[in-house]
Design a protein that fits this description.
By secondary structure, the protein is an alpha/beta fold. The chain is built from 13 helices and nine strands. It has a six-stranded parallel sheet, with helices on both faces. Strand 2, helix 2 and strand 3 form a beta-alpha-beta unit.
């Protein structure tokens, strides 16, 4: 990836990076890209969302065409398949990106969506990485996200230094679509862990053990899990209610990818039950 041009008033170096999806996780990712010294271009449906990053030195673009044309790498961190398709295909981001540029899909979506976009992008010599992330807002703020990457390894190497500005772990898992598959499996297991943690605390109560006491004990024992640590905030906070909406989407995607039956069925059954229990309005 060729270096971007600089001026005497611009201390940023390296490739021009575009970022779309400045939400709870995307905004801190974008901020870390800026802090690492890259040229950052941003666009949002709500222009006000770009203001904090512009104050930090980012360039706001009027539309996705402008952003795509200016940048050697564009990262997406939007909510779902419909959002990805809208930005990349309907608004035309893909068709504004230059030959040799790279599109990185950090959103968690169906593997087939990334495969379809990659096929269209290949005809334009645009590389595509499906690269969903794990670690949440806290991980993004610390620069410690895990990125699960599907796509050509050579394409990943071209943008690795950018990803390293916000990720602690970057793992190439296979062809385009495999990153999404890994993320869906991860989220299915996480949701199942939350459900099992809840079952365990309920069992403890039947023996007269307070949930807070058992949680503290298990967190320091072999029964500890990410699900146990996340159970309380996921089930008692406004953020948790929103999170279950997203997790429900991911479990549904996992079910659609794997189909009924097979070795995945028990995981999906437990995860689905958790979504139905905790994801109620």
């Amino acid at each position: 990836m060729p270096p971007a041009s600089t001026t005497s008033t611009d201390a940023a170096t390296g490739p021009r990076i575009g970022f779309i999806g400045l939400g709870d996780q995307g905004a801190p990712i974008a901020a870390r890209i800026l802090e690492a010294g890259f040229h950052l271009h941003v666009w949002a449906r709500r222009p006000a969302a770009t203001a904090p990053l512009v104050e930090l030195g980012a360039t706001a673009c009027a539309d996705v065409d402008e952003l795509g044309a200016r940048c050697e790498m564009v990262a997406l961190c939007v909510t779902d398949d419909a959002d990805v398709r809208e930005i990349v295909l309907e608004r035309g981001l893909l068709y504004s990106m230059a030959s040799g540029s790279v599109l990185v899909v950090h959103s968690t979506v169906a593997p087939a969506t990334c495969v379809e976009i990659a096929a269209l992008a290949a005809a334009r010599d645009v590389g595509v990485l499906d690269a969903p992330v794990s670690g949440g807002r806290a991980g993004a703020l610390r620069g410690e996200l895990t990125v699960m990457v599907g796509g050509e390894l050579s394409v990943l190497e071209r943008v690795r230094t950018v990803l390293e500005s916000y990720a602690r772990t970057i793992t190439h898992v296979g062809v385009v679509g495999s990153g999404q598959a890994a993320k869906l499996i991860n989220n299915g297991l996480f949701v199942a862990n939350v459900a099992m943690a809840n079952f365990a605390l309920t069992l403890g109560e039947s023996f007269g053990i307070a949930p807070t006491q058992l949680t503290e004990l298990l967190s320091k024992s072999s029964g500890s899990s990410a699900g146990l640590a996340a159970l309380a905030p996921l089930t008692t906070t406004d953020w948790g209610r929103h999170a279950w909406t997203v997790l429900g989407k991911d479990v549904s995607l996992l079910l659609s990818v794997t189909g009924a039956g097979g070795g995945a069925q028990q995981l999906i059954d437990v995860a689905t039950a958790a979504v139905e229990r905790f994801g109620r309005p």
